[in-house]
From TrEMBL:
NCBIfam families: DAHP_synth_Bsub (TIGR01361), PRK08673.1 (NF006421), PRK12595.1 (NF009239). InterPro entries: Aldolase_TIM, Class-I_DAHP_synthase, DAHP1/KDSA, DAHP_snth_FXD, DAHP_syn_2. SUPFAM superfamilies: Aldolase. It comes from Eiseniibacteriota bacterium. One of its GO terms (biological process) is aromatic amino acid family biosynthetic process. Residues 87-331 form the DAHP synthetase I/KDSA domain. Keywords: Transferase. Residues 1-65 form the DAHP synthase ferredoxin-like domain. This is 3-deoxy-7-phosphoheptulonate synthase.
Length: 337
């Protein structure tokens, strides 16, 4: 249930409504809004009749939230959430480019790649320090050494840092180095991790699982928000289909659907979606045309020698071309870069 108060509602009237809902066992969350106060009551109990809440002093309107993902829904919050980190806005008019290698390998790799993506217009540097590899024998990441390296290189280039978190035991370590904690596709339904991420103040990017429905994906975002952290971004990264020419299939339907159902910023990762280097740029264009708020792209200074995901990593000059084309598409759909 979402409750909108009258502009002249008193704090006592607000508290009375909050107390009533809390007494019934609901969690009461206030929407971050500059307009009238909006509260949501979420929980698994039986809500009081809408008319009863509507009749309470100070209440302008009480409506049901039909979606299962209550706090992530536009029924709760109509305007798109804009997340500010430093001077970067995610979800605002400008689309945001996040780019860098699949995994952090060396100082030379990070310095060259960061300079290239920064020059092209990226605002966030990506790079995994903990890698979820299909084989236990594959490179698993540099761990804290990698985090130190990406932080140092990002700072030197005026970039933010996004990196994947695999386990809740890594939260306190990663909070020291990272601006955006990425929950990977394979961990989208790691509910104990999502719950713990609800307690951090860092922005969390939740990738869509390999075969997750939009409802399941947004429910994962809901876990983080209901845990107390509303700084959430969702990321479409391709779903598993029957096609074998490409690694996955970029689901642009999901981008349009998520944008209309949810107020959360939606990012697209065309690299893991298609898995083939020369198809990344066209998909990046399509994603921005479909309404994505930004892109997460794998770029490597020397992709042929990358330890991980080289086949889908762009050469720096390809990323430059991507940014140029995305700027034109963004302009055509009333956005900017
Ligand atoms: C990655 O971003 O390198 C990654 C492992 O992505 P995903 O979780 O989407 O497979
Ligand atoms: Mn990768």
């Amino acid at each position: 249930m979402v409750i909108t108060f009258r502009p002249n509602a008193t704090p006592e009237q607000l508290h009375a409504v909050e107390a009533k809902l809390r007494d019934l066992g609901f969690q009461v969350v206030r929407a971050p809004s500059s307009g009238p106060t909006v509260l949501a009551a979420v929980g698994d109990g039986a809500l009081p009749p809408l008319a009863e809440v509507c009749a309470m002093p100070g209440v302008a309107e009480a409506l049901p939230i039909p979606e299962p993902f209550k706090l992530a829904s536009r029924s709760f919050r109509r305007e798109t959430t804009v997340l500010r980190i430093g001077d970067v806005e995610i979800g605002g008019t400008a689309v945001v480019l996040m780019a860098g290698p699949c995994t952090i390998e060396s100082e030379d790799q990070m310095v060259r790649t960061a300079a290239a993506v920064r020059a092209a217009g990226a605002r966030v540097l990506r790079g995994g320090a903990f890698k979820p590899r299909t084989s236990p024998y594959s490179f698993q990441g540099l761990g804290e050494e990698g985090l130190k390296l990406i932080r140092r290189v990002a700072d030197a280039n005026g970039l933010l840092v996004i990196s994947e978190i695999m386990d809740k035991s890594q939260i306190s370590l990663m909070e020291r180095y990272v601006d955006i904690l990425q929950v990977g596709a394979r961990n989208m339904q790691n509910f104990s991790l999502l719950r713990e991420l609800g307690k951090t103040e860092k922005t969390v990017l939740v990738k869509r699982g390999l075969s997750a429905t939009v409802d399941e994906w947004l429910m994962s975002a809901e876990y983080v928000i209901s845990g107390g952290n509303d700084r959430v971004i969702v990321c479409e990264r391709g779903i598993r289909a029957y096609e074998t020419y490409t690694r996955n299939t970029l689901d642009l339907n999901a981008v349009a659907v998520a944008k209309s159902l949810s107020h959360l910023p939606v990012i697209v990762d065309p690299s893991h979606a298609v898995g083939v280097r020369d198809k990344v740029v066209p998909l990046a264009r399509a994603a921005i045309a479909a309404g994505a708020d930004g892109l997460l792209v794998e770029v490597h200074n020397d992709p042929e020698r990358a330890i991980c995901d080289g086949q889908q990593s762009l050469f720096p000059e390809q990323f430059h071309a991507l940014a140029k084309q995305v700027r034109q598409i963004a302009d055509a759909v009333g956005r900017a870069l």
